[in-house]
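Kindly review this protein for my students:
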Amino acid sequence: MSPVFRHSYSNSGAVNAVFTLAKEYGFYDEVGVEVELVEYPRTSDALKGALRREVDAATCPGVCILNEAMAGHDPVNVMNMEDENVFGMIGARHIKTPADLKGTTIGTFGLGDQNQVVISRALTKLGLDPKSDVEFKTDYPDRAALLAAVDAGEVSAICFTVPTPLMARRMGLPILLDFRDHPEPYQCGAVVTSRRYADENPETLVRFLAGSMKGAKLFQEDIEAALPHLAACSKLDDEGVLREVHGLFAIALRTLTPSLPPLRGVATDLEAALGRPLGVDLTALVDDSFVAPAARLAKR
């Protein structure tokens, strides 16, 4: 009987198509693991679920890893999914220049969440003080609600990773700052488990990663197979946007081995947003030892 592995992710993350693709095509069965995929409203909820042992791992960004480490938990990044900054700051239609943001309300999930950490940095780059020039509204359940809020002019700006900026541009909303214009290491997505789970269940974890690698390979090589999964995971139906997103993630998935620089980039921004050192050992939060055995298993 195959071991069971429960993997969680947010309800609107395009890169999660890798896991649904792997499950549909039987890749997890091929490597000897039964996988259950669980959706949570947000990536931070998904990681909390993993650390509470409701599930075994989560797809989440660097800020979630750092927040949980600061809270005394033991998250560890065991496979990279997106290690460059693919955030974009999206404005409402009435925002014509970055200066128009002064004195307005910006939508976010709350202090310490990755979208607010990045939008604080974006505001600083645009010459605004995130602590005094704007207010933050935080009562939004998910990415779709925030996009609807900026589209309606309820908030003046939001900040998200692709595909949201691509969809926003199609909707006629201005992209006030696109971090992809200046590529930098930045942990926007990773497979994260607890140190305890990784130590207690290394073989099951390797099997899950191996099946996911097979899903990533199919994602990269067969866009027609990937598109339905991209649509379902991102909650988008614009084929042009989905094809562009596929191209971006097909490149990102070439680097599955986790490394420290992308997480360090996020840590720098989180320290700036919080105004204090994080007080965590970043090296303890990245473990690249599972990728090589998973890759060997995936090739069998």
